[in-house]
Automatic annotation (TrEMBL), chain A:
Purpose of the protein: Non-catalytic subunit of the queuine tRNA-ribosyltransferase (TGT) that catalyzes the base-exchange of a guanine (G) residue with queuine (Q) at position 34 (anticodon wobble position) in tRNAs with GU(N) anticodons (tRNA-Asp, -Asn, -His and -Tyr), resulting in the hypermodified nucleoside queuosine (7-(((4,5-cis-dihydroxy-2-cyclopenten-1-yl)amino)methyl)-7-deazaguanosine).
Biological process annotations from GO: tRNA modification
Protein name in the entry: Queuine tRNA-ribosyltransferase accessory subunit 2
tRNA-guanine(15) transglycosylase-like domain boundaries: 26-406
UniProt GO molecular function: metal ion binding; tRNA-guanosine(34) queuine transglycosylase activity
Cofactor: Zn(2+)
Organism encoding this protein: Lophium mytilinum
Subcellular location: Cytoplasm
TrEMBL record, chain B:
Pfam hit, one: TGT
Swiss-Prot/TrEMBL cofactor(s): Zn(2+)
GO molecular function: metal ion binding; tRNA-guanosine(34) queuine transglycosylase activity
Region (RNA binding): 252-258, 276-280
Protein name per UniProt: Queuine tRNA-ribosyltransferase catalytic subunit 1
Active site location: 271 (nucleophile)
Family: Belongs to the queuine tRNA-ribosyltransferase family.
Residue numbers binding Zn(2+): 309, 311, 314, 346
Enzyme class: transferase
UniProt key word tRNA processing: yes
GO CC terms, sorted: cytosol
Function as written in the Swiss-Prot or TrEMBL entry: Catalytic subunit of the queuine tRNA-ribosyltransferase (TGT) that catalyzes the base-exchange of a guanine (G) residue with queuine (Q) at position 34 (anticodon wobble position) in tRNAs with GU(N) anticodons (tRNA-Asp, -Asn, -His and -Tyr), resulting in the hypermodified nucleoside queuosine (7-(((4,5-cis-dihydroxy-2-cyclopenten-1-yl)amino)methyl)-7-deazaguanosine). Catalysis occurs through a double-displacement mechanism. The nucleophile active site attacks the C1' of nucleotide 34 to detach the guanine base from the RNA, forming a covalent enzyme-RNA intermediate.
UniProt xrefs under InterPro entries: TGT, TGT-like_sf, tRNA_ribo_trans-like
Biological source species: Lophium mytilinum
């Protein structure tokens, strides 16, 4: 039978578990790939869109974030398939470097993780087939075969490739037959990815690919994917370096043979509390859509882990809990020269203030979202650093309880309008209103002109109050 | 009238021996800037997604804000409370505030001697905007260069009487602006020469404006769709009548050809939203012309936006740049704002770099050769040279068509 991971000499293992409590619970780890920043876990990956963390240009990524690893979706790059070779595949990079990394101008030491689909992904109307996964590109729905996916991985050489999972998004609860198929296909597709790595001849020593493979774990109970899991453990364990978990609850049922593998959450947490919950189940690495969602809503995240001690815990005083974020659209910030969060050392907080960010949002200037996005990632960096320290101290469970008592469970509701939504970010339904309201209206009709910039859109008294003009004398 | 205090000094370094081009250093309250200069437009106290540091890194030390927009948002009270636009946007360098673009308001507004009357679009209340309001706002903004309120009408207007009225009114409004200006020792008020395309009106206006002795002089009302040849005649006529020791700002001009020709005609300062706006549409400004990087022909083009460009976007990784390719811009153009930011950086730096190269050529007294090289690169076929440029440059002693 196959060896377990812990039989391997430590220098061959990328992932080291530094601290774990029994078989189930929060754990500390370290994911170290040659030439890359060592990711101390629990941690998160920056979520990219078309190769960039939304709002953050590559120079700002280097200068103003500490993001150590990113998640990139292949579906952002393969519009032209199958009729045309995607441009990304045509970029030739030196053998020891990744063409995807070069293409998106990712720093050379940032961990690069590739999966097929964006997180969160748009459900596709066409079902997956036995050989191909349905994807959504900026020009419409496409399919990518398991073979093409494996070939693409070879071509673009990321650090980690997440195997394809057959999950019927947007479909009603799958029946037993469909569940069988999910398990079968995922096994086939993972096998395809693994065999491509080594070539068909398993005796070949030097693998052709330098990337590691994270195998998907389906959002099903252990029993319902036994077939797949057995094959994973019996036939592919040597070639699997990690797991991509679609349902965090599965961590309780994880077979012993794969327990030491790093666990990447594809079970997008909706709040910091949900992140803590998954960590309490033993999750290591996250992709967190709510960071950018909060940014787009103009909400600057504002929480620490463990929560501040000085204040009286909100739990005792009903309704007195702290919010997890500040809605920067609110006009109460218009005169505030305080940073987005006190004590935050990010670029936005050290160089700018709330009044400017509030102005930028209300003026629909892109920089508003840039600054909030930089800040929100800095908050997540400290949040995860706090989590790791807490686990190391052995106080995670108490700290988690204190966090839940101190903060509201969910992020604040969005009140302002987000940035322009792009076609590949949503799927339109019937009778939907326009996603992006028209920015300009006819200017020369006084009754109706409420256009953005060139027309004063305040009442006369307000205009006078802000010193813009005075009421004309008759 | 007592001479107006000035918060700038114009240090002339070199004059082209053939054309009217000048190279200088303009010392402003927030540091020196090289002339000729292109000023990127940060209308609402932000340059289209760039942080002040990113803008600084392009080499920019003087950018524009718009008085009208800042007067509406965040408003004078906020600007006063925070201590001006520099603090508001964390920009440690110079700011020039352009006044209100009344052209765009004309359908709603009525210009009277008192000021601009308009109905509040929200509740229909008649409002009045005066030169005094404009200056008061700019005093609150604290910009290093402030502009007078002027009566602008489209240069293409056939109504000469109205044009003359606007010109005369702009002179009278300048007097009111000078009177209303609270901080002449730290903010430089520039007059704006009006008069449409009528050279006699322009001459009269120039004379009147020069007499008022403002620290700098702007030529306004241009770049509104007039013939380029007519534009060049106005610039040429005005600069010939202007004192040598003052900066000359041609408002709203920004295409590279226009800049290079206008410098030869004796202008020093320019602003335009075009380079940054066009970046957001995926257009890259390069020395061989504008490339629309959304065109599929660039999808497999793994070369930099412009070979040899020193902006952070184009510079190779080995030199500390990002090594962004045309193919990547194609990939993100109009899809991710980060793509717009990258191209905005490139376009702004292209413009600034063009000015720097022009300046170096003037310093070495090689401006005519620089102009020829510039047009030669832009139009490999001489017969495609724009006639207006050939004519205007001929007027200042450069024969673009000669070998």
């Amino acid at each position: 039978m196959s060896t377990t991971l812990s039989d391997l000499p430590p220098e061959m293992r990328a992932f080291t578990i530094l601290k774990t409590s029994a078989s189930f619970g929060p754990r500390l780890g370290s994911l170290a790939l040659p030439g890359r920043i060592t990711l101390e876990t629990p941690h998160y990956l920056g979520n990219t869109s078309r190769g960039a963390v939304s709002h953050i240009s590559q120079d700002n990524f280097r200068k103003n974030t500490s993001i150590g690893g990113v998640y990139v979706a292949l579906e952002d790059f393969v519009e032209k398939l199958p009729r045309q070779t995607p441009p990304l595949y045509q970029l030739e990079s030196p053998e020891n470097s990744s063409s995807l990394r070069d293409f998106i101008a990712l720093p050379k030491d940032t961990l690069l993780v590739v999966g097929a689909r964006r997180i969160p992904c748009i459900p596709c109307p066409t079902a997956n087939t036995n050989s191909a996964l349905s994807i959504y590109t900026s020009v419409g729905f496409r399919q990518i075969s398991a073979e093409d996916y494996a070939a693409a991985s070879q071509k673009i050489r990321p650090d980690i490739v997440v195997g394809l999972a057959d999950i019927p998004y947007g479909q009603p609860q799958p029946g037993l037959k469909r569940i069988d198929k999910m398990s079968d296909r995922t096994e086939e597709w993972t096998k395809e990815l693994v065999s491509q790595t080594h070539g068909l001849d398993k005796t070949v020593k030097a693998p052709r690919a330098s990337y590691q493979i994270f195998a998907p774990i389906l959002p099903l109970t252990k029993e319902l994917q036994t077939w797949y899991l057995d094959h994973l453990i019996d036939d592919m364990l040597d070639d699997i370096s990690g797991l991509a978990i679609y349902d965090a609850h599965f961590l309780a049922d994880l077979p012993a043979q794969v327990k030491d593998l790093p666990r990447l959450s594809f079970d997008a947490p909706s709040s910091p509390g949900a992140v803590l919950y998954q960590i309490s189940l033993g999750m290591d690495i996250f992709t967190i859509p709510f960071i950018t969602e909060a940014t787009d809503a103009g909400i600057s995240l504002d929480f620490t882990f463990p929560p501040p001690k000085s204040e009286v815990s909100g739990g005792e005083d009903a309704g007195g809990k702290d919010t997890l974020g500040v809605d920067m659209w609110q006009s109460e910030h218009a005169l505030s020269v305080t940073p987005l969060s006190i004590n935050c050392s990010c670029y936005a907080c050290t160089k700018h203030h709330r009044a400017y960010v509030q102005h930028l949002l209300s003026a629909k200037e892109m920089l508003g979202w840039v600054l909030i996005q930089i800040h929100n990632h800095a908050i997540m960096d400290s949040f995860f650093a706090g989590i790791r320290e807490s686990i190391a101290r052995g106080t995670f469970d108490q700290d988690k309880l204190a966090f839940e008592a101190f903060y509201e469970p969910e992020l604040p509701e969005k009140s302002g309008q987000g940035p322009r939504v792009r076609g590949y970010q949503f799927k339109s339904g019937q009778n939907e209103t326009k996603k992006n309201p028209a920015a300009y209206k006819v200017l020369n009709v006084p009754e109706e002109s409420s256009s953005e910039a060139p027309t004063p859109d305040a009442v006369a008294a307000d205009l006078e109050k802000i010193g813009f003009a005075e009421t004309a004398k008759p | 009238m007592a001479p107006m205090p000035s918060a700038l000094s114009y240090e002339l370094l070199a004059k082209c021996s053939v054309t009217k081009a000048r190279a200088a250093i303009l010392h402003l309250p927030h540091g020196p800037v090289p002339l000729p200069i292109f000023m990127p437009v940060a209308t609402q106290a932000s340059l289209k997604g760039l942080t002040p540091e990113q803008l600084e890194e392009t080499g920019c030390r003087l950018c524009l804000n718009n008085t009208y927009h800042l007067g509406l948002k965040p408003g004078q009270a906020t600007l006063d409370a925070i201590g001006g636009a520099h603090k508001f946007q964390s920009w440690p360098h110079n700011i020039l505030t352009v006044s209100f673009q009344m052209v765009s308001l004309l359908k709603l507004a009525k210009v009277t001697e008192e000021g601009v009357k308009f109905l509040s679009p929200h509740d229909g209340t008649p409002m009045l905007l005066t030169p005094e309001h404009s200056i008061s706002l700019q005093n609150s903004i604290g910009s290093d260069i402030i502009m007078q309120l002027d009566d602008v009408i489209a240069t293409t207007s056939p109504d000469l009487a109205r044009m003359e009225e606007a010109m005369d009114r702009s002179v009278r409004w300048l007097d009111r602006c000078i009177k209303a200006h609270k901080y002449p020792e730290r903010q430089n008020l520039f007059c704006i020469i009006q008069g449409g395309l009528d050279l006699d009106l322009r001459k009269r206006c120039t004379k009147e404006m020069v007499e008022r002795d403002t620290p700098g002089i702007a030529i306004g009302g241009l770049s509104g769709g007039e013939e380029k040849a007519a534009y060049c005649k106005v610039v040429d006529t005005c600069t010939s009548l202007l004192p040598e020791k003052k900066p000359r700002y041609v408002m709203g001009v920004g295409y590279p050809e226009d800049l290079v020709v206008s410098i030869a005609l004796g202008a020093d300062m320019f602003d335009c939203v075009w380079p940054t706006r066009t970046a957001r549409f995926g257009n890259a400004v390069t020395s061989t012309g504008v490339l629309n990087l959304r065109n599929a022909s660039f999808q497999n083009d793994f070369t930099p936006v412009e070979e040899g460009c020193t902006c952070v976007c184009c510079r190779p990784k080995e030199d500390g740049g990002l090594g962004i390719t045309r193919a990547y811009i194609y990939h993100v153009a109009a899809k991710e704002t980060a793509g717009a930011h990258l191209l905005t950086i490139h376009n702004v730096q292209y413009q600034l770099n063009l000015m720097q190269r022009a300046r170096q050529a003037i310093l070495e007294d090689k401006y005519p050769a620089f102009v020829k090289e510039f047009f030669g690169k832009l139009y490999p076929d001489k017969t495609k040279f724009p006639a207006w440029a050939v004519e205007a440059l001929n007027g200042v002693g450069v024969d673009l068509l000669a070998d």
